[in-house]
Design brief:
Number of helices: 11
CATH topology of the largest domain: Rossmann fold
Strand content: 5-15%
Number of domains: 2
Distance between the termini: 48 Å
């Protein structure tokens, strides 16, 4: 990394996308207005992974999965990537892959994908393959996008990175995310929190943090059953993940759609532009901290300064999901539109 944060030369873009050659992503304290436990010495810091050049947490494992495969010589002859992803992972994979000579990317996406996210994939030159995903697929269900992507990779020029079981996914966070958080918190961390999607972020970060302090509590937050939040998964859908994620956490919380979107919007309105999965992680963290407080357990979490210092991962920004906020957040949280009748491009629905 240049001390002036300048990237130049024939590999400038590749270097710009390499998390190991970038400044740390910011760690920003949540304002007390959104922290109901601030008066009890609880501080919540947000790891802004949305501020990577590709705008999301998946940029790190995407780069690592591709760079490590290239280093092994296994990317030779690959012309096309195929993945099961409706947004951040496949977008990051496609943009990184082009820097390594792989021009085409396709992705299985669920039938309920939002139109905005579909447009984002098209904008990045990714071929979406719409899939009618079963509601509760079993591990070997041939109808699931995960298994369809694996099957497609039988073609000689096609590679399925397999974010759900590729060890280079969590390794990226053990390599970069965990060390950054430990350094930025000066080792005073009381609790680490991450949403549970592919679980790579939680596993890799937890591995590093627990190597520094074995008894550090780790909280994983999943979607409540029958609730929608893009990225994180329900417990049933987590059964399709190939990683042993339960071995890397100490506590589990669940969060619902409305609360996740509302907290995301409230953080964004205070200048922290984060998406719904960031709201979900915060909702689960606050739920866990309230239960700990009620049980009289906060003191056990305090560091040498007497503070409870929590770090929660923010995965991406709100812009790909703007059309969803009015659907999932009560209209009382939005200003009224004055002179609405004059609008010429108002959506019909």
């Amino acid at each position: 990394m240049s001390s002036k944060n300048v990237f130049s030369g024939p590999d400038a873009v590749r270097d710009f996308l390499d998390p190991g050659k970038l400044p740390y992503s910011p760690l920003v304290e949540l304002p007390a207005a959104l922290n109901p436990l601030a008066g009890d010495g609880v501080r919540i810091l947000l790891k802004m992974m949305n501020l990577h050049p590709l705008g999301n947490v998946k940029a790190a494992p995407a780069f690592n999965m591709i760079a490590e495969r290239a280093a092994r010589g296994d990317l030779d002859g690959v012309h096309r990537l195929i993945e099961n992803s409706s947004g951040n992972t496949v977008s990051s994979l496609a943009l990184v892959a082009r820097q390594f000579g792989v021009p085409e990317t396709s992705s299985y996406v669920p039938a309920e994908i939002s139109w905005n996210k579909l447009l984002m994939l098209l904008f990045y030159g990714i071929e979406p393959i719409v899939n009618e995903e079963p509601a509760n697929p079993t591990e070997g269900d041939p109808r699931s996008g995960i298994n369809k992507a694996r099957a497609d990779a039988a073609a000689a020029d096609t590679w399925n990175p397999g974010q759900y079981d590729n060890p280079d996914n969590p390794d990226a966070h053990e390599k970069w995310t965990g060390p950054q958080i430990w350094d930025q918190s000066d080792g005073r961390l009381s609790l680490f929190c991450s949403s549970l999607g592919t679980t790579g972020t939680l596993i890799g970060t937890s591995r590093y943090l627990k190597s520094q302090r074995a008894d550090l509590p780790v909280l994983g937050v999943m979607r409540a059953p029958d609730n929608y939040v893009p990225g994180p998964r329900t417990e049933k859908l987590l059964n399709l993940v190939g990683f042993d994620w339960r071995a890397h956490l100490d506590h589990i919380a669940t969060a619902e759609t409305g609360e996740s979107y509302r907290l995301s919007m409230e953080m964004s309105r205070l200048g922290l532009l984060v998406g719904p999965s960031s709201g979900l992680a915060l909702a689960g963290l606050l739920q866990h901290l309230r239960k700990t407080q009620e049980a009289g357990g906060l003191d056990a979490l305090r560091n040498s300064d007497g503070e409870v210092l929590c770090v929660s991962i923010c995965c991406d920004g709100p812009l790909p999901y703007l059309d969803e906020y009015a659907r999932y957040v009560d209209k009382a949280h939005f200003p009224e539109i004055r002179n609405e009748a004059l609008l010429r491009n108002k959506p019909t629905q």
